[in-house]
User: What shape does this take?
Amino acid sequence: MRFDILTIFPDIFDSYLNESLVKRAVKKGIIKINTHDIRDYSKNRHSKVDDRPYGGGPGMVLSVEPIYRAVSSLKPKIKKQKIRTILFSTRGKKLDAKTAKRLSKYDALILICGRYEGVDERVAKHIADEEISIGDYVLNGGELASMVLIETVSRFLPGFLGKMESLEEIKGSYPAYTRPAEFIAKKGAKPWRVPKILMSGHHEKIAKLRFANRFARQK
Assistant: This one.
């Protein structure tokens, strides 16, 4: 699967893309990630990509023109049948496992990262296929959101995870423990113990305990 990220800060991704499962997946050819500087698509002499908003207001807004050029230039190069263009926005659909699984069926995703006070609305109306939000809060830009989406979507691709059973979405999230069976944080304190059932070897009881504790902290 291919991801193309449009941003004005491409260097932000250097560390993330060269670590852990993402780096391994790139090496194995499971995913391909390209970053593109929106400034490279500006006709402005100073590579300016933002301007003052019509109607007034604080800050600057990313212009539609360089983003249109970037997406129009990329699509013919991708040469994939199923391409989805996504704009990160606080007004977008909330990213969840169902959405990530749906997006994993595409051959390529073009990810548009906003900055400043937003993006010209014509990008959402005429260029992006959909808007996505990763939560009810505001970030300085879409770069972190794009990293979250890439990892969330990639987890549904065969070979990205060591075992598909690692997908928490399959069975829910439950408390996990490892050795030691008892941990004493400080002298004289009560030990923090692993539940006895988990050390019993009784798989049916363990499964029931885990099922009962799914998403417990969210209640």
User: Anything to note?
Assistant: The longest helix spans residues 64-78. Helices lie at 14-17, 20-27, 64-78, 97-103, 121-126, 143-154, 168-171, 203-212. Residues 2-164 form a domain with the Alpha/beta knot fold (CATH 3.40.1280.10). The chain is about 30% helix and 20% strand.
